[in-house]
Amino acid sequence: MKKSKIFLYLILFLIITSLLYVYYIYSEPNIIIKWNFNHSENIKNNISYLENIPVVKIKWSGYISWFEHWKLLKQEIKDIVDILNYKILNKNSIKWFLLKTYLLKEAKELYKNIPQIYREEMKWVSDWAWVSYNDILLINTYDDLLNFKWCSSLIIWKTDKNKELIHARNLDYNINFLAWKSVIFNFLDNNFISVWFPWYIGVLTATNNNWITLSSHTSLSLDENKIWTPSWIVYRKIIEESKNIKDVDNILKNSNRTIANNLAISSLFENKLVVFEITSKNVIPRFWSGYVISTNHFESNELKINQISQNSKKRYDYLEKSYKENDNITVEKIEEVMSFYDWSTYWWSSVANKWTVQSVIFLPEKRKLYIAKWKETPVNKGWYIEYNY
Question: 48 by DSSP, 3-state: which?
Fold first, then answer.
């Protein structure tokens, strides 16, 4: 009798403990807003459209920075949350509950390393879009948790072949819906331009007033740590603070990194191009002369050892061949190169493919960018629109 009671008490204890743990996982953090109310009269952002692509000029970072998102982008944010819950996680199923619980548990670990100002920005997005803060947190840590983003970049230095620095980048993501959801964010207080999506506060494709350009490319490696600083925070810090390649190097090496990544950087003033091959344990720069190519695999011998096989070498080889075979490189030629879709290859093998949801070309010296517009993938089946910043 005593044994059966002990067993029942143990079961009851485990049930209560499990429920409390699930409650903790699903409870939303209490965000204490710390922003200057003296700025309140100036918080209205300048929002315009570039052929239906929103251009958001943000005057102050932090909670107030997303002041008008609820008017402009609320539906887009709700749509991606629905896609996350219903299409990716299959809401209202056992799979949804188990997978979301696991992802939230991991996201809460990453949350510990998110600075206050970015917590506030996510809070504003969730408040005014009327969606759960947990969902916004998941969307903003999706790359670090699942590592599903694939990309290709080509940066070309000023040479006899071309008269200006060009940084081109294709973003491949397994959510086609993103093809018509790009937004250009112009952070006026921190002097940088980021091209991304309305629910995302990080930086993965950007340029700043110091003529640094940046594009990131996930890689797959055994050297990962999913409880450290989300990658987008590290890259936002880089684009907000870096004046040169040395600054980029220092920020990367002094950060607690999570996933493997190739970070393509150009510095106009220094005449330098570099790809940083990154894992949680290593940062290895590859300096280039004339041009730089980055896809999703490592080239350095040190990191190849723990590299998980992936299908990005064909994209790399195609971009290299395209550069070497063209004597007169123009923006139009780069658009053509980045739009090439080889239908006969495997999904991720072609530079433009059925998951290419964003394509951007930076001309930092002229302070211009070109962004592809189309409602299907690859998004560069359509046309590129010029934006002067």
Answer: strand
